[in-house]
Amino acid sequence: MFRLETLSDNELVQNFIEGDQNSIEILINRHKNRVFSYILIIVKNQELAEDVFQDTFIKVIKSLKRGKYIENGKFVSWVLRISHNLVIDHFRKIKLNGTVSNDASDVDLFNSKKFSEDNIEDQLVYDQILFEVKELVRELPDDQQQVIYMRHYQGLSFKEIADQTGVSINTALGRMRYALINLRKLVEKKNLSLTKI
Predict the structure, then answer these.
(1) Is the dihedral of CA 143, 148, 151, 155 positive or negative?
(2) What is the set of domains in the chain, with CATH numbers?
(3) What is the per-residue pLDDT across 38-83, written as a single tens digit (0 to 9) for each?
(4) Who wins on pLDDT, 97 or 70?
(5) Selection from 112, 83, 86, 88 nearest residue 100 by Cα
(6) Are residues 38 and 65 in contact, defined by beta-carbon separation less than 8 angstroms?
(7) What pTM does this model have?
(8) Is the pLDDT assigned to residue 125 strictly greater than 80?
(9) Of 77, 168, 175, 185, which residue is most buried, by most CB within 10 angstroms?
(10) HSE (CB half, 13 Å, CA atoms) of 32?
(11) For residue 96, pLDDT beyond 80
């Protein structure tokens, strides 16, 4: 088992396709936290996230057995795309099942602000952007990560950040400046689009 854990994702995929059941277990364990966190960020419901997570890996296993995976060194990206599509499918089903008829009312129900809702596709795109930004922040040096989390996630002022980290305000501002420069470089390097269309 230890030898298997040192293999790359694609080697484990190949082993699983050739019949080694332990390989898929290692792949699931290797990526479960990232995949589950991604799903949970979008659906914001623990039970639903667990269901989508299970469905994701059922689909992964079926797809691998049918030869639907093309080895390109991005196994986890492929799994995340499957989970993303399953989440979209889930919300589409809810939308279809929750239809309201306008026929039984004298008032136009669909003209009421109370019944309006955000477009689920826009929300998914927004959630995807937040997830990608968090992933990019993790690639920054620790001091730059720290200032971003304290400023944008905890809402602290630069004075509070300076006090808590034991540096001057100018140093805290400088770290934020370099963090933003580095984030821009990462966005360009990875060719990401972090805007709603």
Answers:
(1) negative
(2) 1-98 (1.10.1740.10), 113-197 (1.10.10.10)
(3) 888 888 889 999 999 999 999 999 999 888 887 676 888 889 889 9
(4) 70
(5) 112
(6) no
(7) 0.50
(8) no
(9) 175
(10) 9
(11) no
Residue with tokens 């990875």, as numbered in its chain: 190
- Element of type H or E holding 173: helix 169-190
Report in angstroms the alpha-carbon separations of 23 from 11, 19, 76, 178: 9, 9, 14, 41
C-alpha count within 13 angstroms, C-beta hemisphere, residue 181: 7
Contact predicate 179/149, CB 8 Å: no
Task: Report the range of poorest mean pLDDT among 32-41, 141-150, 184-193.
Answer: 184-193
CA atoms of 76 and 132, how far apart (whole Å): 14
Integer angstrom CA distances of residue 166 from 93, 102, 123: 52, 61, 38
Cα separation, 142 vs 140, in Å, equals 6
Contact 168, 162 (CB under 8 A): yes
DSSP state of 97: H
Cα(36)–Cα(45) distance, integer angstroms: 11
Percent of the chain's residues with pLDDT above 70: 79
The three state secondary structure string of 48-92 is HHHHHHHHHHHHHHHHHHCCCCCCCCCHHHHHHHHHHHHHHHHHH
